[in-house]
Specification:
The protein is an alpha+beta fold and about 300 residues long. Helices cover about 45% and strands about 15% of the residues.
Length: about 300
């Protein structure tokens, strides 16, 4: 008996799963990504002459779970359609393939994931990206929607620097290292669960590794922000994503942050960071005056 390689099996599955669209508006071009419930394809919208991404319900979903999966995916499409924000991928269309599988059409997003994009970039640039990630999450919270699975792999950075938060799937269970303790315990989930996950993203941006893979390090004020966001008890976290982002903005502006009471040394360090250019000029001026006075006859 000849065993097929994993690559061959995957190729055969891709052929068997290839969508047969209703009508002739959409032409499926290539597979982009495969998840547990759905598969995302690059497609061509012939009517509007543009590339789009189409998420299709996976044929691997069992018959007993199919109706539930269809409803979850339909609700996912409705959720995205409600969230009209530049940081959230818009939904254009939805329907059923000829084989009955549900699909929805969305904007095609190009660019690297956050974890790929930030490599070798300075901390200040990473933090500014972080505050932009917070914006669509706060917008969703204002509409009563919690993401539940925020992590660097679910954020994309477009070719013009646009930041998009992806995968707003209903019923997400979260990712170890990023999901809040109440998610692991199957407890109540609210905005503060996303605050916890955003704290995990902040940890990643500070040290270049997930919270469960490397200890937290970096400026003390930033560590305090991260620890408050990731407090075990939800009541000890920032109450909103807006409050978390505001503390990061204060750090970037060289102002005191609410998560960290300042001592005299902290104030001096913060002052020196905020006025580094002016202090450098004064020091250079004083050194030059000293040198000139020393060289004078």
């Amino acid at each position: 008996m000849t065993w097929l390689s994993d690559a061959t099996v995957d190729h055969l599955r891709d052929i068997a799963d290839w969508p047969d669209p209703p009508g002739d508006r959409y032409e499926f071009v290539e597979l982009l990504a495969r998840g547990g419930m759905g598969t995302v394809y690059l497609a061509r919208d012939r009517e509007l002459d543009r590339d789009v991404a189409i998420k299709v319900l996976s044929p691997m979903v069992s018959a007993s779970a199919e109706q539930s999966a269809v409803e979850r995916m339909r609700q996912e499409a409705r959720t995205l359609a409600r969230l009209e924000h530049p940081g959230i991928v818009p939904v254009y269309d939805s329907g059923l393939l000829q084989d009955g599988r549900f699909y929805y059409v969305m904007k095609r997003v190009q660019g690297p994931r956050l974890d790929q994009h930030v490599a070798e970039r300075p901390l200040a640039e990473r933090l500014r990206l972080f505050t932009r990630i917070c914006e669509p999450v706060a917008f969703a919270h204002a509409h009563g929607i919690v993401h539940r699975d925020l992590k660097p792999e679910n954020v994309m950075v477009g070719p013009f620097g646009e930041v998009l938060v992806m995968d707003w799937g209903i019923g997400m269970v979260g990712t170890p290292g990023y999901m809040a303790p109440e998610q692991e315990d199957r407890g109540g989930v609210d905005e503060r669960s996303d605050v916890y996950a955003l704290g995990g993203i902040l940890h990643f941006l500070m040290v270049g590794a997930p919270p469960d893979a490397a200890p937290l390090r970096g400026p003390r004020a930033l560590q305090a922000i991260c620890r408050q966001a990731r407090a075990v008890n939800p009541s000890d976290r920032y109450p909103t994503v807006v409050a978390l982002a505001a503390d990061v903005d204060r750090y970037l502006a060289g102002e005191p942050v609410s998560a960290s009471p300042e001592g005299i040394v902290d104030r001096l360090l913060r002052f020196s960071r905020k006025h580094r250019a002016a202090i450098t000029l004064v020091v250079v001026y004083l050194v030059l005056r000293f040198v000139i006075a020393w060289l004078a006859p």
